[in-house]
Amino acid sequence: MKTISARQTGIIVFLTILANKILVLPSVMYEQSKADSIFALIAIFSFELLVLTIFLQVKKAHPDQNLKEILKQKVGAVVAKIVIFAFLVFFLFKTMLTYSVLYIYLKDLVYQDEFGFLALVCLFPVVNHAVVCGLRAMGRTFELFYYIVLVGVLFCLGIAFFTDISMPNFFVASPTEILNSGFTHIFAFGDYLALFLFIDKIKLRKGEGKKIFFFAFVGIFLVLSIFVVFYSKYQVTAFMHNNALADLLIFSVQFNAIGRLDIIAMLTIMTLGLFQLEIFQAAFCESFVQVFEKLSIKYAVAVFDVLFFVIYLVIIKKYEIMLSFATDYLIYLAILTNVVLPILIYALGHKHKKELSNEKSD
Amino acid sequence: MKQNVEKFIEKLKSQFHDDSDFASRLFVCSNGKIGFVFLKSMSDPVLFSQSIYLPIQNFEGEINKQLLIDKILKNNGVESIEEEKIFADILDGKVIVFSDFFDGFISVDITKYPTRTPSEPPTSPVIQGPREGFVEDFKTNMTLLRRRIHSKDLVFKTLIVGQHTQTKVILSYIHGVADKRVIKEVEEKIKNIKIDGVIDSYYILSYLEKRPNSLFKQIGNSEKPDVVVSKMLEGKVAIIVDNSPIVLTVPFILMEDMQSSNDYYTNHHYASVVRFIRMCGLLIAIVAPGFYLALQLFHYNILPLNFLITIADTTQGLPFTPFLEILFIFLLFQILYEVSLRLPSYLGLATSVVGALILGDTGVKAGLISPPGVIITALAKIALYTVPEQQSQITVLQIVFIILGGSLGVLGIITGFVYVVNYLNTLDDYKTPYLAPYAPRVKEDLADALLKSSINDHHAPPKSFPTGKGGAK
After folding, report:
1. Can you tell me the distance from the alpha carbon of A129 to that of A308, in angstroms, rounded to the nearest whole number?
2. How far apart are CA A133 and CA B465, in angstroms?
3. Whether the bond into B212 is cis, omega within 30 of 0
């Protein structure tokens, strides 16, 4: 089996942590809990790190099995299929949301007309091709672009310091508002759960879990930094700026020797968006193949494309609808996949461990 | 089996279809008759006379086969052979000696045909370092390698390919340094080649590639023995093809083309800078025209104001759209390039004058093309030669990126680029990742990748591809 290394897995975690959080999320969260959204973010990230620990434990216990085989062993075939199906739906809408967020960016700041739709359609062949090529090729591509993306994000952050910024006002929102903000936007999180679907394709040696955590911390640090710098820069008008990372550059000082630097944000956002789409579609296709065992990855890609276009025409074309759909309905799905399922997997693993130790003591 | 000399000569002659190049001689001595057959175009008549015919003629006493081999024939390449080997030896330029008074055949090497003296290859000149290049004669090429690797572990395996040409393909590697699986795989692939003829090493190249229809080269090649030797020392297998000055090497990684033999004969800091510039050159060559189009057509608002004014001034009133303009200039350059390749050298200056002055300058003055368009396309075309080994691939990619940039803007460039990188990451012939040591990252090999460290740090065998000392599995 073609596997990916710990470093490549870490980079996937890094990319998924940035996914959907660096463009629209800072402004929409600000509407609910002002700059205190950062506390909601810290709480969710802390939980995500715990889930990452669970993932590593599951991987350690089942080094060569895929998620379906693991679940089948513990809870039976039917429940296993239901769980994987939940992931399938989760990642279908995740891809939709990412397309949607990218669409807003392209329409607002890059193409400034309906051309954005055509551009999204053009992303399809590339994303489809990447998924068909497999996780190993994808992992290698991410590895090659990792520093480019990292430097791009750091550059956008760094340039923002060349304007007048002051720390935002914290402790303005009530704890309920903060919790509410985290709860409402929970669908924007949990992207790294794709790892559970790729679990058998990840090759981890002893002690390599630290590498994955390192990349997770880098990702979390960047997201938190973007939130802080964005709120510091725009203060009370933060809710008006829908493309956080790009907006950090737009109203920054212009360097006469170089000219406008928006192109850096443009390249970074497009590359990041493309990679995130690849990961989510790969996760969708992987869960599809695990649910419908007899169908190949190419069928999964075809099914995804058809579903995407149907749902796009109904929902995403008006991206506001997609965003409200994510905050109104998809949160329940996200709670199932982001919270319930990892806890369930952990509990089952724990039970299994206990049974094993009981057997040993007997 | 003793031969009836005349009958056997007739038999061979008819098997060569009365070829006028086929020559035979008959000598009658006290024991009986001795026959000689050879090809005039492949053998040296003076050597035949001096080392074969005259010694036999001057020998006094009874001649037998052993005496001929040990004493009479004054030539180093004398051996007793079986009948099956006759044709191969005649075609190699050897003389076959046979008689009605001894069994079997004697083959004497008097091969002589015109060969080129090793000289500096025109495609890879160096400022410092060895200037010798491979030639068309495989024996000379083998010598050039043997002279550089004084080791009993250097192995040459000869295989024959081509139904009509019967071309010698020599597999060369250092035993214990090259990976056995790679050697076996290459040998199998060469043995399975079914082809009428092999004119050049490129004929067998596609048989060695996992994806022969791919745009990207998957097999390394060089005209320089020092380059091939350095690759063999890393654990690669070289393939010498008779009549070709290009020696192939496997496995291949893209980074090889970013390296030049010059890098190893200069200061490593300078080599790192040059490699970095080469990498930038590659990127500029691929995306510059497409990127310029994307900025001009879709993202002009992010161009610096002065630059935007210049472009607006110069493109005003052009009959073509920016997209067609760049395509037109690109086509113009490509035509000039093709012409300059095929024109006799004395017409080279005329081409430059026509290209630079008449087509370029007058084109701009006539308002057909804009100066920025010419500069960007020229820059891309010149940058292409920072990595000349990838010239054909880059030219195709330039057209693709012009179309992507012109129709989709920067998003088109990025999606195209990611697509290409994704595709390259699927190439893993001979268990070697194409973009190693960066994707996947092979820490041990970064010392001699885009940045080059001192030669003192290059002691560990590479890990990016399988070698006899480990490496990729």
Report:
1. 16
2. 21
3. no
Give the pLDDT confidence of A165-197 residue by residue, as tens digits: 788 888 888 888 888 888 888 888 888 889 999
Across the interface, whether the CB atoms of A260 and B302 are under 8 A apart is answered yes
Predicted local confidence at residue B122, as pLDDT: 81
Walk me through the domains of chain A, giving residue ranges and CATH numbers.
6-361 (1.20.1740.10)
Q: Do B439 and A141 touch (CB under 8 A)?
A: yes
**Contact between residue B411 and residue A270 where contact means Cβ atoms under 8 Å apart:** yes
Gap between the Cα atoms of B3 and B33, Å rounded: 10
Q: Residues in chain B whose beta carbon is closer than 8 A to a beta carbon of chain A? A: 298-299, 302-304, 307, 408-412, 414-416, 418-419, 421-423, 425-426, 433, 435, 438-441
CB B208 within 8 A of CB B248: yes
Which residue shows structure tokens 């967020």? A101
> Per the structure block, which two tokens stand in for B298?
């879709």
CA dist B287 and B276 (Å) reads 17
Among the partner-chain residues B298, B304, B441, the one whose CB lies closest to the CB of A143 is B441
Q: Which of A362, A326, A353 has its CA nearest to residue A89?
A: A326
Q: Select from A69, A34, A330 the least CA-distant residue to A169.
A: A34
Alpha helices by DSSP H, A161-208: 175-184, 194-197
Tokens of B101: 């008074």
Q: Say yes or no for a CB contact (<8 Å) between B414 and A274.
A: yes
Whether residues A259 and B410 touch (CB distance < 8 A) is answered with no
Mean pLDDT of all residues in B183-201: 94
Beta strand segments in B123-224, E:
154-161, 167-174, 220-222
Cα B279 → chain centroid:
22
Mutate to test the interface with A, among B415, B417, B450 (most CBs of A within 10 A): B415
ipTM of the prediction: 0.92
pLDDT in tens, B85-101: 999 899 989 999 999 88
Determine which of A81-95, A109-123, B90-104, B127-141 has the lowest per-residue pLDDT on average. A109-123
- Give dist(CA A259, CA B106) in Å, integer: 81
CA dist A96 and A320 (Å) reads: 12
